[in-house]
Design goal:
Layout (H helix, E strand, L loop, with lengths): L13 E8 L4 E6 L7 E5 L4 H18 L7 E7 L6 H8 L3 E5 L16 H16 L14 H32 L12 H6 L13 H31 L2 H46 L1
């Protein structure tokens, strides 16, 4: 995929296409640089594959309508958003150049009141695309498109972070519920759920927890256990997916940390022994001075 074409002063014949994406429909703006206004169409097929094919059909129709060469360069752009990168990958797999744009990089004339519609946004994007292809790099910023594997790894890490957050939320919720009854038990202790099930968790005055509160806490414990179970399984998957060099570095760090802790423990032990040996002598010297 080309990313930095040099501007030679002679504008290459390019069919620029921009997509303004929405859940119900896409606006498609097409411009070949030889007419005043882009052509704008709407595709609203309910299936993703059919909608993408409708875009490809529009490209072919305008290549024929505008008498463009069969091998004319076609460049498609759309703003990064909830649709991710599947459109870019699908178009590239068909030999079409595609760029994903950072929406915040599109210049906006803030001192003017501007209507906000999908049609106008699509036109704005295709005009900026043509300018960017001419070498005006300040018109927009292209987002890096990760590989499918890299994107899958990102999902793994995001899911891990979400599960860690859920674990903390469950513990915090139970801690706050118990605090309303003057109970300060450690809810993140592994035996808390068992003690709660045996009715060993009490109020501040030793009274049993209200049945409704106890049932709610038991449900929270079940959710917490599920989140912890999923987090442990996901952590195993993450560790197994690490490349061999990364696993080796991790093992080396664990070994160094263990060695440091042993050395630190030995240092503390030697220091305490030294203090214990010198303490009686220090006491006798102090008594002699008196």
């Amino acid at each position: 995929m080309r990313t930095d074409q040099a501007y030679t002063g002679i504008e290459e014949r390019v069919l620029a296409v921009s997509l303004e994406l929405a859940a119900a429909k896409w606006k498609v703006a097409l411009h070949d640089g030889h007419r005043e206004q882009p052509a704008v169409h709407t595709v609203a097929q309910p299936q993703a594959s059919a909608r993408l094919q409708a875009v490809l059909d529009l490209i072919e129709q305008h290549k024929e309508k505008w008498s463009l060469p069969a091998g004319v360069r076609v460049v498609v752009s759309y703003e990064a958003g909830q649709d991710g990168f599947w459109i870019c990958r699908a178009l590239q797999a068909r030999g079409i150049e595609c760029y994903v744009i950072d929406p915040a990089s599109i210049p906006v004339e803030r001192h003017k009141r501007r209507a906000k519609t999908d049609r106008l946004d699509a036109i704005k994007l295709v005009i900026n695309l043509r300018a960017w292809l001419r070498g005006e790099r300040d018109r927009m910023h292209v987002v890096h498109v990760p590989s499918s594997q890299d994107e899958a790894s990102r999902h793994l890490m995001r899911d891990r972070g979400q599960l860690q957050k859920e674990v903390l939320q469950h513990c915090d919720r139970m801690r706050k519920l118990l605090a309303t009854l003057g109970c300060w038990d450690e809810v993140d202790h592994k035996h808390f759920a068992g003690r709660l099930a045996r009715d060993e968790v009490k109020c501040h005055d030793g009274a049993p927890l209200p049945p409704e509160m106890r049932e709610r806490l038991l449900r929270e414990c079940e959710r917490l256990a599920l989140a912890q179970q999923q987090l442990a399984a996901l952590e195993k998957t993450r560790q197994a997916s690490l490349p061999a060099p990364a696993r080796q570095r991790r093992d080396d760090l664990v070994l160094r940390r263990a060695q440091f802790e042993v050395q630190q423990g030995e240092f503390v032990s030697r220091t305490l022994r030294t203090i214990s040996r010198t303490s009686p002598r220090t006491s006798r010297d102090a008594a002699g001075m008196r």
